[in-house]
Amino acid sequence: MSPASPSPERPAAPRTGQPTPPGQQGTVTLEALLVYPLVLLIAWIGMQLALVHLADRVALAAAEEGASAARARTGTLTAAGQRAHRYLDVLGSGLLADPTIRIQRTADTVTAEVHGKAQRIVPGFPVGVTQTVQSPTERFRAESRGFGNSEVPSAMNPRAGAG
Predict the structure, then answer these.
(1) Has residue 10 been placed in a domain?
(2) What is the pTM of this model?
(3) CA distances to 58, 87, 126, 132 from 64, in Å
(4) Structural domain of residue 116, as residue ranges?
(5) CA proximity to 79, closest of 87, 109, 55
(6) Residue 56 vs residues 42, 49, 61, 160: alpha-carbon distances, Å
(7) What pLDDT digit, counting tens, does each position of 58-92 carry?
């Protein structure tokens, strides 16, 4: 027997024009019906996660810009909101939809929050994005006129002679 001839262990492959053996009809159609949509769905979910991540980074950058403008000693909430909106317009156009910016300033801290929605390509996928940045405000304090620990005379500083 030649290697190309059919043997009892290896059945001959069906030739073009011959009917498919029983039990094997429609297997390619079934694979295409189940596997291809699943692969596409996984790819879409991957792209959706990438869009959510990008929108999250844009929201964080805008919140940082707003907080930076508000924390300055002469900074105002209006200027901070405008700076964050301008940053979103330049960087996040198309990535973060319906953004809302909320900036609060107290004597000690500034809190900037940016909320929006990422683009949605997978129906039903949650796309809300919120980033909050909190930082201290800039304040200038008066210079202290008293002696610091390093300026205290040796007789009054018990650690000065212990060296």
Answers:
(1) no
(2) 0.66
(3) 10, 10, 24, 8
(4) 35-136
(5) 87
(6) 21, 10, 9, 54
(7) 999 999 999 999 998 888 899 999 999 998 988 87
